[in-house]
Amino acid sequence: MPMMVSQRIGAIAFFGVSDMAPHRILILGGTTEARELAERLAQTTYDVTVSLAGRTLEPRPLPVPVRTGGFGGNEGLARYLTENRIDLLVDATHPFATQISHNAVHAASAAAVPVFALCRPPWNRTPDDRWTAAATIDAAVAALGRNPRRVFLSIGRQEAYRFSTAPQHAYLVRSVDPVDPPLSVPDCRYLLSTGPFDVEAERRLLADNAIDAIVTKNSGGTATYAKIEAARALGIEVIMIERQPPQGLVTVADAEAALAIIDHCLGPV
Ligand code: NAP
Question: For residue 76, which atom of ligand 1 is closest to its CA?
């Protein structure tokens, strides 16, 4: 059992570990940021594991061991942290993966393991953007209005079906893996594609399909920002599903800053 030394950094308590600790790090992944951190840590002596939910059918290989599938709630995650003698937990999941982030906070507390989040900052509206903010997916559906529109839906494959409640619109749905369940609407086409995307290609896609509304999550990052730039250039409305308020985790924006926290908690990288 590691020696517990409580330190406060920002809003969260960190529990330092003794010199004898094996310096094991668990990264909750599924994002570009998790991959970047794993690649940096693979060049160190830390014992690093990345955890994936198993949603992506063919995830790209990582340079560290990977475990796949849910833990069984926060109790299961706490048990995993203890049984595997994890010294530090990094929540590098997607900003809209709220359940696992919630579990990470509670499990880390229960297992007395330090935790912080690595999360890309959200996109910011520029004066030329036509954004309508939506707090939830249902609010985004409502924001499309009653009149039929041609919608480019880019919110991932798991929740797209919720637009079935607005069957008056024509949809073009883009996702990495097939949308499941599919939308139950008369006019829907599916496009399988993986970023990063190019602004000119995004402009063509939107113009060729006469899109007049984009629905997306405020995911942040560069890989999928081209559609926002293309919408700006074409004057297309973007219904932007905003993130939930932060949950009190110390959060850093990139792998470099994450390495600094790891250095602080566990010693030099
Ligand atoms: P979620 O709703 O927050 O989590 C649902 C459940 O999935 C969790 O309670 C957990 O199951 C399991 N889970 C989630 N992430 C996991 C991980 N990294 N390792 C092990 N189990 C995990 O998550 P989600 O929105 O479905 O996203 C699933 C994964 O896809 C995340 O890892 C996220 O980084 C990635 N992702 C999500 C989005 C998005 O828009 N939500 C976009 C791109 C990538 P147990 O309770 O059984 O532990």
Answer: 48
